[in-house]
Sequence to fold (397 residues):
Amino acid sequence: MRALALALLLVAPLAQAGEIPAAERRSDTVTMSAELRAMQADDMANPASFWALDGQTLWDAKAGTSGKSCADCHGDAQASMKGVAARYPAFDGATGRVLDLEARINQCRTDRQGAPPLAMESRELLDLTTYVGLQSRGAPISSSDPRLAPAIETGRQLFSARQGQLNLSCAICHDDNWGRKLGGATVPQAHPTGYPIYRLEWQSVGSLQRRLRNCMVGMRAEPYPFGSDAYIALEAFLMFRAKGLPMETPAVRP
Amino acid sequence: MGRLAIAWAAWILAISGAGAQEDAIPTSLTGAPGDAARGRAIVANRQVGLCLLCHNGPFPEERFQGDLAPDLTGVGARYTEGQLRLRIVDPARINPQTIMPAYGRTEGLNRVIGAFAGKPILNAEQIEDVVAYLTSLRAEKTP
Fold:
């Protein structure tokens, strides 16, 4: 009985939980130091430019049994990929699944190019997602497909559920305590505007899933496997939550 | 009954709530008093106590202290030893919505990562050390 009462208490909704009011929503680029903001804004100084440049080379490279490159189907990415990353994750009518940009690129590889999928966080997949993401820089996040609703709802639940040995939720930090100090770090609002990002701590570019994995390990929660539907649902919810904010890929983060 | 058995019984009592008198766990979880100096080191350690991620307090040598939670300065004057013990073991028993982790509870948690599964954040001895340290924090902030 006591255990049941305790369990009920634990799932009780947070009294102070609340979404960020639209007027206060912003990318956490603005809370970074002036040096980091300058590094992000200048393509010559932004280390992620190397990934984007390699992505451009891969875009034009033939791959797989089809002998086709991305460009053979899509042409110039600057035209065909404009605004695409701003509406991902997206619903794939053919499979009935929700795909993030990484999953879509891999689907093109396996189904259209006849090439093996690229491993999550591999240099090549980061190169391509950075290059495709770059074509949406400045475009407002705009996913509006009603078929995304179930994934967004799953993501919302994952975002507000307590987990891990520290029994925290994403919402506790990113809805209720953004702007405050967690040790030395300012808790961001956690908008996915700039992914893939170059993170100084990683000395590398990394995906949004890698960032989410970091937060889960920080809560001492078992991270989901890379590429899992749970991450894609969280990504869909984060994009829905960030609707209207401009894309900044590739962002720089400490 | 050996010392270990007594300690174990006290621990079970404490975490099952039977030993809690509403607002406090009056007796030591180990049957012995904790060590305040060791407790201070646990509180300041970002991998062990994790306290300074959320709290700040009288740690002039620590540069990065959180502000998600009340200042620990003078907390030993605001609460009894037993009240502090309950606030470390299971703060949700005082405030069900609290964001402060329960340092001595293992039930009611989801998706705990493998290395920590089934284990409390701090063991009974570490909790007693932290309680001894917090009890010693009697001086309020000098303005």
Notes: Residues 3-136 of chain B form a domain with the Cytochrome Bc1 Complex; Chain D, domain 2 fold (CATH 1.10.760.10). The interface with chain A takes residues 16-17, 46, 50, 52-54, 63-68, 92, 96-97, 99, 101-102, 107-114, 116, 119, 121 of chain B (CB under 8 Å).
